[in-house]
Every structure is written in structure tokens, then in C-alpha cells.
Design a protein that fits this description.
Low-confidence stretches: none
Strand content: 5-15%
Mean pLDDT: 96
Bound molecules: uridine-5'-diphosphate-xylopyranose
Distance between the termini: 54 Å
Length: about 450
């Protein structure tokens, strides 16, 4: 099928490249010429494992352009995957979405095109985009005859760092529209994934347990709500583990054991119960905020979602309190942070716990050293105001420090020979911000090991 994708961020790029890999003819549009040039040269503007390999494998079906007029005409499906940043009041800023919809309407010329909201948009945005498309389309002087279009929602559940696997081997696909023909088109588009009939990319074999993928084909509002409800649930699952973690620390229980014991109940499930400094990233914070904002438009309170947010920001504060408990005085102390990105395998710094922790330590008079395997370049560009020192080497992070905090559980940190660094520190306090290090081993090596919960 002929597909157009507007926006080449994490969601748009992964969607476009994956669909091209499956054999669809895909054109990706981005207004940023530099990004388009990079992608044409086979380079990926974001850090995402496997993306450049998939770009190479899908190259023959893939075109990049800055022009809607080149990409939209003739497309069976147009995905809109532009950014929807949070506005001041927590509601998503839909300016980019509006502009994209207006531009799409200028170029529609096919007998039937499905315009899909792939960005995380507030409930009701499908209708809103539909109205913009229709208004802009009827105003066109060159309006062609026999052109039909409809709006659908196809929320994205991919995790950064796992984007390709999450797209090709998803738990489910959700499509929503009030127009049955759109649902048929999307059902056809995703057949290779639903039936798992494609030959896997050379670098990403099909997991042994990957079966046919369930398709949830529903109305527009339900599809839009599924996305928010799922993300908020994952966020509150983590916050619940963190809330229990605080009680575990008080009663002398081990939160890692508690989470394991809970997660083995299949009704609960073991994933997203990892305690620590909490969630960050572009989705959970924004989506929980937007859910609360939408509910308030209906005079509805969302106490559970609000609590998940409060617990999450408390975790960041608790990390600093733990250091204060150990060091008594933070002023003048040197503290190293391992990991800047909001989670491993990405260079994304949006709402990263490390930034809050660093800022709060600096505000209390500490000096902060930062290290990350991939995110330091982005850090320099995005956080010029944050007065911390960037360490190039692991030795340098530990050197002369009063405490080191593991904030992001990059594999390379877990695999370190931890015996080598304890002697470099002024006081060997090690705060495990993710509950991933072996406490007994660390203590045997001479560290004063503490964790966020316990
Ligand atoms: C998330 C959703 O998982 C995805 O479905 C959605 O479409 C986009 O938002 P992402 O933000 O890429 O994906 O990251 P995810 O892997 O979900 O992790 C989010 C945050 O939660 C990270 O900061 C991570 O460190 C933290 N986390 C995750 C925990 O603190 N504990 C856990 O058990 C799991």
C-alpha cells in the first residue's frame, strides 16, 4: 500500500521505516531539511538501536522529503506523527497537529485516504482533526472531485530503545475509527504484523513466543482513551512499587523480593514493578498530566493518576534525602551521577530523573559530576544552564567523590568491575537509584551501599 508519514520523531520514523520494511511504499515528511538529508544518507537523527540497520534493509521502499505535495497524493494511509508537547496548563499543545492536518488537506487527491492520528493526542482529537481536514479541503481552489477521506486513531505503544521490536512484535494493535472503511484499510496495512507473516530483519529475529497479534478494532474515542489508560496504568504500577518500597524500607523488608513475590501472580505480572528513582521520559509525565486535564474538562477528578505523579516526584526527592542522611551535609560535597538518559538505550533526556537530582544537589551546595554512555552530547545542547561537570570516564566520576548514584541502569554500568572504583572515592557511599546492584557484593567490596527504598 502507499503510505505517507508526517514527522520523523521516534514514533513517525519507526512507523515509516517498519512499514517500508514490510513492503509498503512509504514517504516520510519532515519540515526539517537537515533531518531529511541525514535520513536520505541512511543516518538516523535519534539514538535508537537497530534503526540504521532497518533503514538500510527498507531503503528500496522508503523516500524522505520536506514536501507534503510529494508525499500525500495517492497515499492510502497518511500517518500524522508530529510532536504534541505539553502546554503550560498540562494539556497538549496541538499547534503542530493543526498545521499538519491543514497541509495534508491541501494535497489530498486519492479516492480514499485514511488520515491516522499516531501522535498521542487528547481524547476527541480525531473529531477535531477531521473538522480541520474538511474545512481546509473545501477551501481549496484546486479541490479534486471524487476524493474521500476519514480519520482514524492508531495509538503507539513503542518504548524508546525497543522501538523496532515493539513495532514488529507488538502485544496488540489498536485501531479506532467511526468509519468502517478506514478500519478495513488499516487492518490490511497491518496484516503482515497481525499474522506475523513477514521475514524478520536480519538483526532482530522473531521471538519464539511471538504469535498472531491481537487486533483491537474499535471506535475513535475508545482507541484514543486506550493509549492514555495504558500509559497511566504503567506509570501508576511503577509508582505503586515505589510507594510499597518506602514502606518496605521502614519495616525492614526488601522491596526487590516484595516486587518479585507480587509480580509472579499472573494477575499482577512482573514487569513495571522495578523500584527506584521513578519514571521519566516523554510519555508518562505528559500523558498522566493530559489525562487529568481531559478529566477536569468533564469535572472529573483522577485521584489515582494524581497520586502516581506525586509518588513519582517524591522518589527523586528521596534520592537526595538518602544522600543527605548519609553525608549529613551536602554543601561542598562532590557527588557523581551514573546515567543521564531517562532510561538505558536512549539519549533522551526529557523528564530524566538525573536532571532533577543534579539540580537539587546543586541547589543544596553540592558539586555534581555526570556521566552517560550516549546522552552527554544531547545534554550539552539541551541543558547549558545545568552547572555540573561532565566526566568522560568512569574513573573520573568516582574520583574524589563523597557519593556516587546509579541513576540509569545502562548495561555497561552493571557490567563494571566495581572493585576498581571504591578506592578512588573520598567516602565510598553508593546509592543504587534502580535497585539493580547486588547489595551484599557491593558491601563486601567496601562500598557503603544504600538504595532508594532501603
Ligand atoms: C512508554 C511506554 O512504555 C510506551 O508503551 C509508550 O508508548 C511510551 O511511553 P518509554 O517512555 O519509551 O515508553 O519508556 P518505558 O520503558 O516505558 O519506561 C518509562 C520510565 O519508567 C523510564 O524512566 C524507566 O526507567 C521507568 N521504569 C520502567 C521504572 O522506573 N520501573 C519499571 O519497572 C519500568
Amino acid at each position: 500500500m502507499k503510505v505517507c508519514v508526517i514527522g520523523t520523531g521516534y514514533v513517525g520514523l519507526t512507523t515509516g521505516v517498519s512499514l517500508a520494511f514490510l513492503g509498503h511504499e512509504v514517504t516520510c515528511v519532515d519540515l526539517d531539511q537537515a533531518k531529511v538529508d541525514m535520513l536520505r544518507g541512511g543516518k538516523c537523527p535519534i539514538y535508537e538501536p537497530g534503526m540504521e540497520d532497518l533503514l538500510a534493509e527498507a531503503a528500496q521502499n522508503l523516500t524522505f522529503t520536506t514536501s507534503y505535495a510529494e508525499a500525500v497524493p495517492g497515499a492510502d494511509v497518511v500517518f500524522v506523527a508530529v510532536q504534541t508537547p505539553s502546554a503550560e496548563d498540562g494539556s497538549p499543545d496541538l499547534r503542530y497537529l493543526r498545521r499538519a492536518a491543514e497541509s495534508v488537506a491541501q494535497s489530498l487527491n486519492h479516492d480514499f485516504t485514511v488520515v491516522v492520528n499516531k501522535s498521542t493526542v487528547p481524547i476527541g482529537s480525531g473529531n477535531w482533526v477531521d473538522a480541520i481536514l474538511r474545512d481546509s479541503f473545501v477551501q481549496r481552489e484546486d479541490r479534486p472531485e471524487g476524493v474521500e477521506f476519514a480519520v482514524a486513531s492508531n495509538p503507539e505503544f513503542l518504548r524508546e530503545g525497543n522501538a523496532i521490536a515493539d513495532t514488529l512484535y507488538p502485544d496488540r494493535i489498536v485501531i479506532g475509527s467511526d468509519n468502517p472503511r478506514s478500519l478495513e484499510v488499516l487492518n490490511r496495512l497491518y496484516r503482515p504484523i497481525i499474522n506475523q507473516t513477514f521475514t524478520p530483519p536480519s538483526f532482530l529475529p522473531r521471538p519464539e513466543d511471538a504469535n498472531a497479534v491481537p487486533l483491537v478494532s474499535t471506535d475513535l474515542a475508545s482507541a484514543e482513551l486506550i493509549k492514555y489508560a495504558a500509559n497511566a496504568f504503567l506509570a501508576l504500577k511503577i509508582s505503586y512499587a515505589n510507594e510499597i518500597g518506602q514502606l518496605a524500607a521502614k519495616v525492614g523488608a526488601d522491596i526487590t523480593e516484595v516486587a518479585r513475590g507480587m509480580g509472579l501472580d499472573q494477575r499482577i505480572g512482573s514487569r513495571f514493578l522495578q523500584p527506584g528513582v521513578g519514571w521519566g521520559g516523554s510519555c508518562f509525565g505528559k500523558d498522566t498530566k493530559a489525562l487529568i486535564a481531559t478529566a477536569s474538562e468533564y469535572n472529573l477528578d483522577m485521584p489515582i493518576v494524581k497520586a502516581a505523579r506525586e509518588v513519582n516526584s517524591r522518589q527523586r526527592a528521596i534520592a537526595v534525602e538518602r544522600l543527605q542522611d548519609e553525608l549529613r551535609i551536602l554543601k561542598g560535597r562532590k557527588i557523581g551521577l551514573l546515567g543521564l538518559a531517562f532510561k538505558p538505550n536512549t539519549d533522551d533526556l526529557r523528564d530524566a530523573p538525573a536532571l532533577d537530582i543534579a539540580n537539587s544537589l546543586i541547589a543544596r551546595g553540592a558539586r555534581v559530576k555526570l556521566h552517560d554512555p550516549v546522552a552527554t552530547g544531547r545534554f550539552r545542547i539541551e541543558q547549558p544552564e545545568l552547572a555540573a561537570y561532565l566526566s568522560e570516564t568512569i574513573d573520573d566520576v568516582f574520583a574524589d567523590c563523597d557519593a556516587v548514584v546509579l541513576v540509569t541502569e545502562w548495561a555497561q554500568y552493571l557490567e563494571l568491575d566495581w572493585s576498581k572504583f571504591v578506592g578512588l572515592m573520598r567516602t565510598p557511599i553508593l546509592l543504587d537509584g534502580r535497585h539493580v546492584l547486588d547489595a551484599d557484593r557491593m558491601r563486601r567490596l567496601g562500598y557503603r551501599y544504600v538504595a532508594v527504598s532501603g
